[in-house]
Amino acid sequence: MHPIISIQNLSKTYPSGFQALKSISLDIQPGEIFALLGPNGAGKTTLISIICGIVNPGDGRVLADGLDIVTQYREARQRIGLVPQELSVAIFETVWDTLKFSRGLSGKPMDKAYLEQLLRDLSLWDKRHNKIMTLSGGMKRRVLIAKALAHQPRILFLDEPTAGVDVELRRDMWQMIRKLRESGVTIILTTHYIEEAEEMADRIGVINKGELVLVEEKAALMKKLGQKQLTLQLQKPLDGIPTSLADFPLTLTQNGEQLIYTYDEQNEKNRIAELLRQLSALHVEFRDLKTSQSSLEDIFVSLVEEK
Questions:
Q1: What CATH number did the domain enclosing 30 receive?
Q2: Residue 282's CATH number
Q3: Which of 15, 119, 178, 286 has the highest local Cβ count within 10 Å?
Q4: 15-31 residue pLDDT tens
Q5: Got the DSSP string for 1-28?
Q6: pLDDT per residue over 124-167, tens digit each?
Q7: What does pTM read for this prediction?
Q8: Domain that holds residue 106
Q9: In the 8-state DSSP scheme, what is residue 131?
Q10: Within-domain flag for 304
């Protein structure tokens, strides 16, 4: 299966001398949801803007659905939809007119049935004759998605799609994104909400200071880099960790009431059972235990700090 987006050694340096992207190479497969994570100024929006034809590329090559975004710009752009961060819509137009214009701009013939279904799917049909200026912020963001999908693109970029919306609307939009993927649309999203990537993405890329630090399937990433902790709630506080347990990566809370064992699941070879046996031999009793695992946010922070 050929990638629907292929980025090869892409770099971008602005006239000021700032290097926004440094030799990025990345393939995105048809039908996947790919989340691009990174701090402010990492290069996320620059990368998306180049692929969408908004910013001129520097060195390197980008193919969208097999089409070169520079030499085959018009055909490539018809394959792509973009939902930008900013609420950039013509506020005095109606929702329906905005969609008609967006579809016509891409050279597609009018298809009233498709646009009606699109508005219904986005819960906008009842607002089709409303001027955009009268809509709430959440509805305006839905209009942006409808506008990006008006010409039936195969690739959809969502740049911070849920920035500034409430939790309920955010979850509605997650459901909407899943439906789009089921219809065959490939989705690339940038987000500051780590839980959004954790909830939605098939694969995750981390970009920092213009470099692609890591690309990994979400489950594999969390398994590979996620640490687990076993917390033992002790019956009696300890003054310190027994010297016979020095081989274990243990920490004791300040009040001496909790013993915490941090381990890498991949390298864990039943040492928990060994630890519990040794604690029993030392007559260290506990009344409760619990395990927890690193979240994607923990992994992301550690990757960026390490880089």
A1: 3.40.50.300
A2: 3.30.70
A3: 119
A4: 999 999 999 999 999 99
A5: ---SEEEEEEEEE-TTS-EEEEEEEEEE
A6: 999 999 999 999 888 888 888 899 999 999 999 988 877 666 67
A7: 0.72
A8: 89-152
A9: B
A10: no
